[in-house]
């Protein structure tokens, strides 16, 4: 696809004197599923925060749909790695979903039931959040990100804390959203087999851009050694 959704140019981000990201460059096209891989502390979550406008680049730029991320935040759905909350708070799924606002007067919360159904959670809107399993809660977070016709979905380790069967289901869901809605998806993941199966582009990140391209061109023994060190690679599941 030639229409750019994300443009990152010479992005540098520093914490005081510590360089977390160093001159990162890449583009994401409309309808892409792009995975970001790299070791712990490589700057993956920092990069996501720069893309959604939570972090201001020290140098370089990030454009979403050609604009500053904060100008188009209503078009971005973000699913964080961890969403901490008191499980004793008596808030229902419907009430939690209703907290998501996009600033568009024409959008109401009437589609909450529909997006919950889309993620396989029919008839849970009156359940308390604290009653949900980890996999169900992650689906609620994805449904919440889908409200108001988001054009870009960003996932930070979407299967964190979910068993391997649930993990496969979450990624199947992301792929289905991408295919049915044409939604562009950016995913941080540590599962190389998942990345190889679902992504059409991969960013290898370790503070600097190690490589960027299709999974078959990027996920090679030589690149993985550069990224993770000796011993990294794919395994075959049955």
Automatic annotation (TrEMBL):
Keywords: ATP-binding, Nucleotide-binding, Transport. Residues 6-232 form the ABC transporter domain. CDD domains: ABC_Metallic_Cations. It comes from the Bacteria. Signal peptide: none annotated. GO terms for molecular function: ATP binding; ATP hydrolysis activity. InterPro entries: AAA+_ATPase, ABC_transporter-like_ATP-bd, ABC_transporter-like_CS, Metal_Ion_Import_ABC, P-loop_NTPase. PANTHER family: METAL TRANSPORT SYSTEM ATP-BINDING PROTEIN TM_0124-RELATED. This is ABC transporter domain-containing protein.
């Amino acid at each position: 696809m030639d229409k750019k959704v994300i443009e990152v140019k010479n992005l540098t981000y520093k914490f005081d004197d510590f360089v977390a990201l160093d001159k990162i460059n890449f583009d994401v096209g409309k309808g892409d599923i792009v995975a970001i891989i790299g070791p712990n502390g490589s700057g993956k979550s920092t990069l996501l925060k720069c893309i959604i406008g939570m972090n201001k680049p020290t140098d370089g730029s990030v454009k979403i749909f050609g604009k500053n991320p904060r100008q188009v935040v209503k078009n971005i759905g973000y699913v964080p790695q961890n969403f901490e909350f008191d499980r004793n708070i008596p808030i229902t799924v419907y009430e939690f979903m209703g907290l998501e606002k996009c600033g568009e007067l024409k959008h109401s919360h009437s589609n909450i039931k529909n997006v919950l159904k889309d993620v396989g959670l029919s008839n849970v809107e009156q359940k308390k959040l604290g009653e949900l399993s980890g996999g169900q809660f992650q689906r609620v977070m994805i449904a919440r990100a889908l409200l108001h016709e988001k054009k870009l979905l960003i996932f930070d380790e979407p299967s964190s804390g979910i068993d391997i069967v649930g993990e496969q289901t979450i990624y199947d869901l992301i792929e289905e959203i991408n295919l049915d809605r044409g939604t562009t998806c950016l995913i941080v993941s540590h599962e190389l087999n998942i990345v190889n199966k679902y992504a059409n582009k991969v960013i290898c990140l370790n503070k600097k851009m190690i490589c960027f391209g299709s999974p078959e061109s990027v996920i090679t023994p030589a690149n993985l050694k550069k990224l993770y060190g000796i011993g990294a690679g794919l395994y075959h599941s049955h």
